[in-house]
Design goal:
Blueprint: E1 4-8, H1 13-24, E2 28-33, E3 46-49, H2 55-64, E4 72-75, H3 94-115, E5 124-128, H4 144-163, E6 170-175, H5 192-206, E7 211-216
Parallel strand pairs: 1-2, 1-4, 2-3, 4-5, 5-6, 6-7
Helix pairs in contact: 1-5, 2-3, 3-4
Bound molecules: NADP nicotinamide-adenine-dinucleotide phosphate.
The site of NADP nicotinamide-adenine-dinucleotide phosphate has 27 residues, from helix 1.
């Protein structure tokens, strides 16, 4: 049977590439944008619109998708703060701190909470985390607010998993590596094409396993 995916935050970068990758693997893909994007150039893909930081838009998306079912719900959307990504928590403005936390931690979980019932018992709910979200591996510091937002996301997913201990669905937090995108910057180690096939392989390999897993693109467990 054809597998189906809903990828949230797919207008560009890793989300766009993940949508294209699953399309190429024969999946039926619905992908979301905030404003008109290159997604419309991908043949066979269904495009939806949502800003994950606006709860009314997330609720409206859920209503539009009534009756749909997805083997994979994957929330990719994320941000860095624009003024100075290297600012420490001592330097960052409250507005930047709040925006990063709301976009990277609160909003993905709101999407999960609002759309989770579109995923059947055999399905997977995934969120794009980052290796920078690992508390255990943070020995060098840097990107303090971004790191904290992904750690918060990981913690919230653990709470979600604890609250749904009997839920057979697979829950994934994915770390794609440091990738050349608008967010990752031109100095990143990997190209999108070096990251996304591994991310998709990992999602497919963990399908049906159940439980919550924090994994890199090679399917290796990341330290919490
Ligand atoms: N690149 C890396 O090295 C790296 C490493 C680890 C984790 N990640 C994570 O991977 C994910 C994708 O990052 P990327 O590198 O591909 O970044 P990107 O090129 O900047 O793309 C970010 C994507 O998120 C969407 N987005 C941001 N805020 C949104 C909102 N409020 N509602 C809906 N969509 C929103 C953007 O949509 P618009 O076009 O509308 O802005 C865009 O599609 C993020 O969660 C990021 O934290 C990236």
């Amino acid at each position: 049977m054809t597998k189906s995916a809903l990828i949230v935050g797919a207008s560009r970068g890793l989300g766009y590439a993940l949508a294209a990758e699953f399309l190429g693997r024969g999946w039926r893909v619905t992908a979301t944008e905030r404003t008109r994007s290159a997604l419309h150039e991908l043949a066979g893909l269904t495009v939806e619109t949502v800003d994950i930081a606006v709860p009314e838009q997330v609720a409206a998306l859920r209503e539009r998708l009534a009756g749909a079912s997805f083997d994979l719900l994957f929330v990719n959307a994320g941000t860095n703060y624009t003024t100075d990504p290297s600012a420490t928590v001592a330097d960052v403005s409250t507005e930047d701190f709040t925006r990063v936390m709301v976009t990277n931690a609160l909003s993905p979980m709101r999407v999960v909470e609002t759309l989770q019932d579109l995923v059947p018992a055999t399905g997977t709910i995934g969120v794009m985390s980052s290796g920078q979200g690992s508390v255990a591996d943070n020995t060098n510091g840097g990107f303090e607010v971004y790191r904290a937002s992904k750690s918060a996301l990981n913690q919230l997913m653990r709470s979600y998993a604890a609250r749904h201990a009997d839920d057979p669905r697979t829950l994934l937090l994915l770390a794609p590596g440091w990738v050349k995108t608008d967010l990752g910057g031109p100095g990143a180690r990997l190209t999108v094409d070096e990251s996304i096939p591994g991310v998709a392989d990992t999602i497919e390999a963990w399908a049906g396993k159940g439980g919550l897993h924090y994994l890199d693109r090679q399917g290796q467990t990341v330290n919490w």
